[in-house]
Amino acid sequence: MAQSPKQWIRTIFKKLKTLKKQDIKNILLIFALVLVIVHAIYVTLIYFDREYNFTILNRTYVSAVAPDQSINDVLSTDIVVIREVDIEELSPGDQIISYGDYGVNEYWVMQVNAVNETTNQVTYTYDGTVAFGTLASDIIGRYDHSANFIGTLYFSATFIRGYILLIMIHLFIIATAYFITYEHKEEQEQ
After folding, report:
1. Residue 64 three-state SS
2. Strand 141-146 and strand 131-135: pairing?
3. pTM for the predicted model, two decimal places
């Protein structure tokens, strides 16, 4: 007869109670090592994506000039999350990502002014003054939001410094887990 989930969980906890403390530490260390190794492989795949187009849950991370900055001041970029754009879903007021406007080779978060589905063209602006027109196929993506800390870390893994930093963090986690699991008593000479 099959066990219900409740009985199955009780059985697992009964077995865990019979384990020694060192056995539980070993199991947790192995679990942590597997997670770290899988994550290190994932970060390595991100690093070797030379086109910087890694996608997580149908979202892409890029560095773009953020909206609401004066075009006459020094502009800063943010890591932003974008998703695929569909011209049928675009409407005036939506924010999209464009590349290379204002003579600067950067991604820009722009606001849509008009959409012409017949000619497949979109008119957009950054500052509300200068308008650009382009084909919908030239739009990089649709602005979703600014990236959180984890998204920023993953984006940094596309560059050598960020990749090395994340691999060093993995090594630190492995070393910490090892030294917590296995107590190292120094031998005292007599």
Report:
1. strand
2. unpaired
3. 0.61
**Alpha-carbon separation of residue 177 from 31, 145, 170 (angstroms):** 11, 35, 11
Collect all residues with Cβ–Cβ distance below 8 Å to 45 and sequence separation of at least 6: 54
Q: Is 39 helix (H, G, I), strand (E, B) or coil?
A: helix
Pair of tokens at residue 138: 């030239």
Collapsing DSSP states into helix, strand and coil, what is residue 23?
A: helix
84 and 98 Cβ atoms separated by less than 8 Å: no
Question: Distance between CA atoms of 39 and 119, rounded to whole angstroms?
Answer: 44
Residues 26-58 pLDDT 10s: 787 888 888 888 888 877 877 777 565 566 666
At 70 the three-state DSSP class reads: coil
Phi then psi for 100, rounded to 5 degrees? 80, 20
- Spell out the residues 6+ positions from residue 107 whose beta carbon is closer than 8 angstroms to its own: 62, 63, 64, 65, 77, 80, 97, 98, 99, 140
pLDDT in tens, 55-109: 666 677 787 887 777 666 677 777 888 888 777 888 888 888 887 766 677 788 8
List Cβ neighbours of 137 (8 Å cut-off, separation of 6 or more): 120
Cβ(115)–Cβ(92) below 8 Å: yes
Tokens of 108: 């820009």
